[in-house]
Amino acid sequence: MTRGPTHTPEGDQLDVRLTNVYVADAKLVADGLVQPEDAMAVFVGRAGRGRVAPFTVQRSYTGAGGWYTESMALLAPNGDVAWRGPAKAITLRGSNKIDTFTEEVHGAAVASDDDHELVFLISDGRSGLDEVGRVPLAVLDEDPPGATAPDTAVLDEALKKSTVVWIEVPGADGTDGRSVPAWYGTLDGRVYVLTGGSEQHLPGLAEADQVLLSARSKELQSLVARVEASTRIVPGSDPLFARVVSVLLPRRLNLRDGDAAAERWRKECTLVELTPTGVPAGV
């Protein structure tokens, strides 16, 4: 398997060196498969941002024998910390040995699919955590291979037959842990919802980065699919707005102003694009 290059900062006084790193999608590693494309990569879904699919980090250190505290951090291209893992105890056997550790990372999130950096921090207890190395990490705007493709496929099929999608918006200004119904349209594998004005009101949707989408059986009203989706606002000036409106108009029931609703929506509503992702919900 391909190994990523490592970098150790100059002037580092800690007697520990990062000698090797491998990062790959956790499910691929568990299935014994080789990471496709660039091995040093993680998957964030088609929206190119949001929660990263669980990934495995295997790293090796050499250094003076003893107990240490280790932590990892994911840096955005601008240097901001996108994610930081908890501090954990590790033991090194001595400078003539190489010790390897493996961990699955859950819950990391990124704001873009630009390359990030994974930074490794170590403390010997005499001071705070010091950086001992970092590796570049590609963020792929693709669903993780085989993660929840069946769920997104089921959602797509269910939405072809339904008039309502159920949306849960997280956060204090969201839907209070409940899924609420909304009428919608679909285009190119994405779901589009209007909120505000004289149309439906979906608390917190226009401000959210991520939501949960659910589809229910039309006959039994039982849950058939539940996936995470990234959100973005489609401005009224965007040519996509007009394309989506042409999909929404015939789906809006009891529309009193007919085609004139398009201009009303542009003035008073927010059009939200929801991109279902194959990143498993809640992992």
Care to describe what's here?
By secondary structure, the protein is mainly β. The protein has two domains: about 15-140, Immunoglobulin-like (Sandwich); about 150-275, Roll (Pnp Oxidase, Chain A), CATH 2.30.110. Helices cover about 15% and strands about 40% of the residues. The chain has four helices and 18 strands. It has helices at about 25-30, 150-160, 240-250, 260-270, and strands at about 15-25, 40-45, 50, 55-65, 65-75, 80-85, 90, 100-105, 110, 115-125, 130-140, 165-170, 180, 185, 190-195, 210-215, 225-235, 270-275. The strands form four sheets. Strands 13-12-16-17-18-15-14 form a seven-stranded antiparallel β-sheet. Strands 2, 5, 6, 7, 10 and 11 form a six-stranded mixed β-sheet that branches. A three-stranded antiparallel β-sheet has the order 1-4-8. A hairpin with a 6-residue loop joins strand 10 (about 115-125) and strand 11 (about 130-140). The chain is elongated. The two termini are about 25 Å apart. Mean pLDDT is about 85; it is low at about 1-10.
Describe the SSE topology:
Elements: E1 16-25, H1 26-30, E2 41-43, E3 50-51, E4 55-63, E5 66-75, E6 81-84, E7 88-92, E8 99-105, E9 109-110, E10 116-123, E11 130-140, H2 149-161, E12 165-168, E13 180-182, E14 185-187, E15 190-195, E16 210-216, E17 223-234, H3 239-248, H4 261-268, E18 270-276
Parallel strand pairs: 2-11
Antiparallel strand pairs: 1-4, 3-9, 4-8, 5-6, 5-7, 5-10, 10-11, 12-13, 12-16, 14-15, 15-18, 16-17, 17-18
